[in-house]
Amino acid sequence: MKLAPFMSARRADQNKDKRTMLTLEEVQCLIQDHESDRVELTQSMKDTDKFAQAICAFANDLPDHRRPGYLIIGIDNQGQPTGLEVTDQLLQNLAAIRSDGNIQPLPVINVQKYSFPSGKGDIAVVETLPSDMPPVRYKGRVYIRVGPRKAIASEQEERILTERRTAYAKTFDSRPCLDSKIDDLSVNLFLNEYLPFAVSKEVIEENNRTVEEQMASLRFYDPQYNCPTNAGMILFGEDPLRWLPGAYIQFVRFDGAGLEADAKNELRFTGDLRTVLQQITQFVPLQIEAYPKLENAFQEKMIHDYPTFAIREFLMNAVMHRSYEGSTAPIRFYWFSDHIEIQNPGSLYGDVTPDNFPRQNSYRNPVIAEAMKTLGYVNKFGGGVSRAQAALQKNGNPVAKFEFGDTFFLVKMERNQ
To answer: N or C: which end of the chain has fewer CB within 10 A?
Structure first.
């Protein structure tokens, strides 16, 4: 019994956010069809590299099935259950592969446990949806399915995935920056400061592609329009403001608690995104003030008005999620005498609502988010807001408050008194 035609009719039109996992009967059909390029069986419970490579390959969907691929854990090469016990920890570990930052851009996966009757044990199934932003990389390598096995994509296969992405491109950062040219980018910045962190050393050494082709494979160049993408311009542009007037951070330090107060200091952080992130990372700790606070009748301790980590995290969040489309406003970083406000253009995005924020994540700028992870400014995807809130509480500050406007997102942090 072959599952592919059945699955196509049953699931192809389902919305990915409303999809349901397979029944046990459907999983058994997949196991019987394990020679398919949409199925991989494994007995291992701990080989994270193997799991991630399979997810990466299914996300790339080189055969262009436009249907999910399935990693099935707890089945041997003959298609028989191994008697595995699937624990909650194993399911959590599998789900964490999505957001640990090693697979770029983030894949869409679903993890489920199934139990066989008659004490034959459990299996874990990882469903991976095809990416609309290929090529997808795991630790700098592009994995694909070639029949029933995994392989590392050749230059020609990467090119096929890159060209396919052009038809799928939806987000603003992946669209072409029309009328711009490769000469408008700092190619040296891309080759020397970004590429070595994004692509494995072995792939770079074997590389015979042009700079344009290398940039296109990382979504920074659009081969159809022969120009950089908006993400390429933001990351490597010699003058990003020429093309994206709001691509900067405006800092103002006020001598009071409101906008009517005099400005003590005013700066604009501009340039390619790597330069902006470096500048803001170095700048924030210099603004933190320490002062003595009486702990008891005999002892004082030094406290800080804000934790550096929380400010940095909210700034990185603003850069990652801001809207460049239809807005020329910068990110506003306003420091008042009793609080800080960080405001970015663009309200909540995608599936995120005031009710599920910050538990739910959607990325308005997935290419920029990937680049920030590659450059080390984001440790992992998801959880940044929660970690910032924890840092505020540990420092003695109230938790941050959020305001969700139609065209903006505002974070407000109160000073530690």
So the answer is: N
